[in-house]
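Readers outside the structure-tokenisation community will struggle with the description of the input data as it stands. What matters is that the chain and its backbone geometry are given together, residue for residue. For illustration, here is how one protein appears when written out as sequence plus structure tokens:

…
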Amino acid sequence: MNRRLLLSAAVAVAATVAGGYTLLGRNKPQPAPAAPAAEDPVAALMQLQLPDLNGATQSLAAWKGQPIVVNFWATWCAPCVKEMPELDALQKKYPQIKFVGIGVDSAANMQKFVEKVQVSYPLWVIGAGAIDTLRKLGNPSGGLPFTIVFNADGSINRKILGEIQPDDLNQTLSGLKA
């Protein structure tokens, strides 16, 4: 009985508070303004200015009109490191497709890493603050590795959370048109 009484009281208070704000016209929720194009996570990623390992600023927008494979990775992520040679082999097999590894890491760690493990595709630095970007792109856990395959028109063809399966990704890439 006490539970019903408490629940009824809580509902009454909530209704009174909500009704009061509405009657007074205060704290009315305002409709959200239309999101500008920059709020679109894919558009934001395409326009993002990121440094490469030499410090030069790069952007995916430079590859507009081409299929792109973006692989988010980190030096401390074992599955990320394991899949890098496989991504490198696929990049060599599909030279018409642009590949980039975006490091959720520091430039210093990445520079040390590439002395041991070299890849032929470019590596850019986004840093540890990338988790929000990953979540907006459809990776709610912010986990790594995270690979996105873009069609030539800039739309997302596929998202892969976790280590790629080379044969599976090969099949996706073979269907992309440059």
Remarks:
- Helices lie at 2-24, 41-47, 78-93, 107-116, 131-136, 166-174.
- The two ends are 68 Å apart (CA to CA).
